[in-house]
């Protein structure tokens, strides 16, 4: 921020003005309360710095991940306390519809087998490549292992003395292990662990319910739900217990998924008591919950720091709608929706990680038909190692 503030004085009509940069510096330092307008300013500043860094490597290297991590560390005087608790809350599990989501993934895979198979081959190959680079072979931890259609579980169980499979859905995890790890010797090396990877779903659902139930009218409920997004703050969440460290940690297509159910549930709770969200307020609602989602994603990345020698991180970074043209050929249409707020996964990785490997591929998520559009996702994979000193 100091570098930018020093340079922006010389620029005419910069993307982030001098006054805005000074304001943002105070927000990041915790000396000024944050509000919804600061979020868009933060993203604009991150994208501006990313472009400048690409033009000149001598410029301080800063990305959106660095800024969101810094923002999470900035204390807020009126912030509600949040506790990182990975135990699964049964009520939140049901209200956030994790079982239904898990079943939906199975249906989507069956309906677009070719596209999902191609993605799975590339995803597995990337994870196996990172596994081969891992020096020690004692413990591998795999997050989001519920369906495991794109995970090399058999290969990991053969390569490591112990493999910990983590998911929020016990039913899906049990079915996967029964169907994939049929060899008793490999099954004996496997530990199943049920965790809420966000660490806050139980708290968040209760706070959503309280905000809606205690509001006198729809406007008050919207204000309270929007404010709730901005009170969210975790400091240094850690996925594994302090005494536990993995050699390989796999977070496969989890990052973009940890942060969507909360928005869906908040809207459902609001509309169940009041009425449909008015169209003119859609953008305002989206701004608040997008901020929450980006912070939840960033905290997932933070929770991976310092717990493994290597991290194999894969995630969909963009979603493209497809349609059939006059010849019946499936083509992309419209703009790309950025699931991480930026066009590349690397722009979300903060500086306490070092990127040592990268891959990209396309995922044919669903096929377009004459009756409706399909979807293709841009997927990236990164091999991460921790820097000395960590977070």
Number of domains: 2
At CATH level 3, the topology of the largest domain is Rossmann fold
Question: In oligomeric terms, what are we looking at?
Answer: single chain
Overall number of strands: 8
Mass-distribution shape: globular
Please render the helix and strand layout as text.
Elements: H1 2-8, H2 18-29, H3 36-55, H4 64-73, H5 90-95, H6 98-111, H7 113-132, E1 139-143, H8 153-159, E2 162-167, H9 170-180, H10 184-188, E3 190-194, H11 201-213, H12 218-231, E4 246-252, H13 261-273, H14 282-303, E5 308-324, E6 330-338, E7 353-366, E8 374-386
Parallel strand pairs: 1-2, 1-4, 2-3, 4-5
Antiparallel strand pairs: 5-6, 5-8, 7-8
Describe the structure.
It is a single chain. The protein is 45% helix and 19% strand. The protein is an alpha/beta fold and 391 residues long. Strands 1, 2, 3, 4, 5, 6, 7 and 8 form an eight-stranded mixed sheet that branches. α1 runs antiparallel to α2 (18-29), α4 packs across α14 (282-303) and α12 packs parallel to α14 (282-303). A hairpin with a 7-residue loop joins β7 (353-366) and β8 (374-386). The chain has two domains: 2-62, no CATH class; 90-386, Rossmann fold (3-Layer(aba) Sandwich), CATH 3.40.50. It is built from 14 helices and eight strands. The two termini are 20 Å apart.
Structural key phrases:
8-stranded mixed sheet, 391 residues, alpha/beta, 2 domains, 14 helices, Rossmann fold, single chain, globular
Concise structural overview:
This protein is an alpha/beta fold. The chain has helices at 2-8, 18-29, 36-55, 64-73, 90-95, 98-111, 113-132, 153-159, 170-180, 184-188, 201-213, 218-231, 261-273, 282-303, and strands at residues 139-143, 162-167, 190-194, 246-252, 308-324, 330-338, 353-366, 374-386.
